[in-house]
Amino acid sequence: MEAITKIRPRALVRACGGPRYAVALAVDALGTGLLRPFLLLYGVMVLGLSAPATGIAMTAGIVVGLVCMPAVGRWLDRGARSTVVAASMLVRALGVALLLATPAGHVWPFATAALVLGVGNQAWPAAHAALVATVAHGRERDTALAAGRALRNAGLGVGALLATACLAGGATALRAMAVATGIAYLTAAALARSVHLRARPAAGPAEDGAGAGPAPRMRALLAANVVYVFCLNVPEIALPLVLVTQLHASPVWSAAVFVANTVLVVTLQVPVTVLLSRFPRRTVLAVAGVVLTASYLGFLAATSLGTGRAAPAVAAVSVVCTLGEIVYAGSATALVTALAPAHALGRALARFELSTGFGLAVSPAVITALAPHGPGVLWGGLAGATLLSASAVAAEKDGARKDGAGKDGAGREGTGEGAAEEDRGACLSRR
């Protein structure tokens, strides 16, 4: 079984797309951290919009932004890599420009800016994963994807801290942060475009008469992913809601949970992914669901404790939830890239991002709807849905190639994961 046993920083940077691309990721994340967590405040404080109108416009932007994903997938399958990444960053720069041009009190121009930002935000993850999958292969690719996530979370955290320190400046500071975000996006786009990486469209399936064929369906995986991604909004939405409104704890606890989550992801994402590389990706993803289920049950138990003990207990259980998030993030995208043949990699990643974006879009509404009915409904419902999703992931069979060739990561004949990896080959070029 292929496994990574040592973290080699230089090799990891190369697997992530090279030094310039790594800098592009860091700059892009820093700019995103400056504005995205405070976009609601921008609408309220700078533009004078109501909080409900601002929230609806932002949610609509995320949902409508998902419509672009099929086109992004087809573009990637034609061989584009760094161009798509740069385009996603340029689109976000355009969104920031529209935001800065929005007159006070006008909700529709703000909604348009949120939509354009949503398109860029939805397109970026699939484009980034496709680029990494072209440069690196096997378990090295899994580690590179994990490193990219750790780097991005670090940039987001630093950007958010800088923005928080500047919030005392009010509307003027928010406008300045938006300008800085736009400049960061433009800089990151130029760096990403300078990598000049593309893949030659895979010709193998057409040559053997099988045709290009559709992307793998992965129905159970995609459906389960919608539930899995709820874990990403637990530290930002569910726990603050429970801690402040139900347990009447100090907001400091919510902040501590968020900071701990960010630090753990930055420091543990790569080591945990490397550690678990000795196991099949699908098994690891199913285990992630079990860990998340255990954390949700832990939250249920913690909230039943008396006043003064519940908040520390919730904070402690949040560490388990973050570990489940780390295991999930290190295996989910990696499994999709391993299952997808070269000619359908873009479409497979686009479908996966559709399920991720949908889950992220609906999870705030679901969490806030369940929370008033009590901890049992909220945490019990999340635990049951996540455990069911983990079971579906474990039970789903990977599609085998028609010729039956190839081996999976454990050396077994005829499974889709290993066969698709062999399909991909070294079909890349730098102009």
Automatic annotation (TrEMBL):
It comes from the Bacteria. Gene3D superfamilies: MFS general substrate transporter like domains. It comes from Streptomyces virginiae (Streptomyces cinnamonensis). It is found in: Cell membrane. InterPro entries: MFS, MFS_trans_sf, MFS_Transporters. Its main location: membrane. Keywords: Cell membrane, Membrane, Transmembrane, Transmembrane helix, Transport. The chain crosses the membrane at residues 21-45, 51-72, 84-104, 150-170, 226-247, 253-276, 283-302, 314-340, 352-371, 377-395. PANTHER family: MULTIDRUG RESISTANCE PROTEIN MDTH, RESISTANCE PROTEIN MDTM, PUTATIVE-RELATED-RELATED. Residues 396-425 have a biased composition (Basic and acidic residues). This is MFS transporter. SUPFAM superfamilies: MFS general substrate transporter.
